[in-house]
Amino acid sequence: GLGTSTKDDAIKYFKAMSEHRIPFSGVKEGDREMVDMAFSKKKIEDRKEWLRKFQPGTYMDHKTKSIKVEDFVNKELILFSVADNVRSIPSVVDGFKPGQRKIIYACFKRNLKSEVKVNQLSGYVSEHTAYHHGEVSLSGTIINLAQDFVGSNNINLLMPNGQFGSRFQGGKDNASPRYIFTLLSPLARKLFRIEDDNLLKYLNEDGQDIEPEYYIPIIPMTLINGAEGIGTGWSTFVPNYNPIDLVENIKRMINGKEIEKMHPWYKGFKGVIEQVDVDKYKINGIIKKINETSLEISELPIKCWTQNYKEYLESLIENNTILSFKEYHKDENIKFVINLTREQLSLIEKEGLEKKFKMSVSLSCGNLVCFDSFGRLKKYLNVEEIIKEFYNLRLIFYQKRKEYLSNQLLKELSRLENKARFILELINETLVIKNKLKINVEKELQSKDYEKDDKEGNQ
Fold first, then answer.
1. Catalytic residue among 105, 124, 131, 179
2. Helices and strands: H and E segment counts in the chain
3. 182 within some domain
4. CA 334, CA 352: separation in Å to the nearest integer?
5. Pair 31, 138 in one domain
6. By residue range, what is the domain housing residue 442?
7. How far is CA 342 from CA 102, 292, 337, 354, 356, in A?
8. Are 79 and 123 in a shared domain?
9. What CA dihedral angle connects 109, 113, 119 and 122, to 10 degrees?
């Protein structure tokens, strides 16, 4: 971009503007429909089909003298749209978007067992993973991975040492990245096993090895911490699920049993999540009547943050719906005590406490969109389909891990046998290396069928 250009570069560019500007060729029949397909809200399904047909390696030839609208849409705009989806929608395998995966890769590479400032970690990630966006965005992603308040992560992969945000503002009340510290959670390497690292397909950018195409955790992290994102033509919302339920279902599959139906679950949430349709749920907070002039709210629905709800209660005071309220929150525990007149309470009870105080929100499980293991966007019918696809892939990688570890043991055995044989031959003087050039020793070892050490590159 222009931000990386010097003053002299800018002068050079703009002096030769006619060389750098490529005009569009004349508008022809079908161009209007092509642009509508790319941008119109009414053409979402057409846009999805357009993106499905994308072929890797597509590019626009900028040496051409003019650009057809059709070529611009199909060869240039589509690259932005695909990149937008890649940044916004996670992989079904590890549950990560690229920015999150880069952070975890950098933490594993650094073996981050001692705390470091978030802004320092973002610099390290940027340096070692070819991250091309702002470090402010990267710091925000690090903070999100470490958050552990109700409604955020069921399992945070980074530790939140400092003020990483709370239920009060949905995590937006975090301290500045230069004041807070983080490190890998003890569970991170339990879920993303180091034994699998050598089986992954690592990406390379401009000669620099960076993060893998995807990690392969032992359980589907996509379902544990959920996901949310809006791309081009596609969006996704995956609720959080209970890790214990996931483990039990995987055990059932191992034993040849059917998967049991799973329902959304959020760590620390005290309310009730009830199913109201095939893929729809109702999340209820907790409100109860203390006496004839008081109500107590001890839980808010998921994603209903304390500050927003406080503002709603203040609006009820202005409308003369309630008299006042007091707050007695502790850490993750919510407690509002609302004071009313008997008449106010009577009117609210007729309307319904739950409705008036917005004690329920709906949650849909009908937009489970992720990239599959082949890098293709896929809409999953239900959670069970995600579990089955993950299970089959994880099983393949367990076999790969077994084969890799077996080969490593065989190599180690061969190395030890070579060492033992070498020592015995020196003792028995059937092999003499004293006062010999290294190259001659190597030739003699080769003639005696010593195997070359793959690890060290010598005999």
1. 179
2. 17, 15
3. yes
4. 21
5. no
6. 429-459
7. 57, 6, 15, 18, 16
8. no
9. 20
* Active site annotation includes 179: yes
User: Which two three-digit tokens encode residue 6?
Assistant: 């010097």
Residues 6+ apart with CB under 8 A from 443: none
Q: How far is CA 411 from the centre of its chain?
A: 36
What is the CB-side half-sphere exposure of residue 440 using CA atoms within 13 A?
7
- Regarding whether 187 and 121 lie in a shared domain, the answer is yes
Residue 133 Rama label (left phi>0; alpha psi -120 to 50; beta): beta
Structure tokens at 444: 């003699």
**Rounded to whole angstroms, how far apart are CA atoms 403 and 441?**
34
Among 423, 424, 413, smallest CA distance to 453 is for 413
116/214 same-domain check: yes
Tens-level pLDDT at each residue, the chain (459 residues): 567 778 888 888 888 887 778 888 888 888 899 999 999 988 888 998 888 888 878 888 888 888 889 889 999 999 999 999 999 999 999 999 999 999 999 999 999 999 999 999 999 999 999 898 888 999 999 999 999 999 999 999 999 999 999 999 999 999 999 999 999 999 999 999 999 999 999 999 888 999 999 999 999 999 999 999 999 989 999 999 999 999 999 999 999 999 999 999 999 999 999 999 999 999 999 999 999 999 999 999 999 999 999 999 999 999 999 999 999 998 789 999 999 999 999 999 999 999 999 999 999 999 999 999 998 899 999 999 999 999 999 999 999 999 999 999 999 999 999 999 999 989 988 888 888 898 888 888 888 888 877 554 444
Residues 114 and 69 in one domain: no
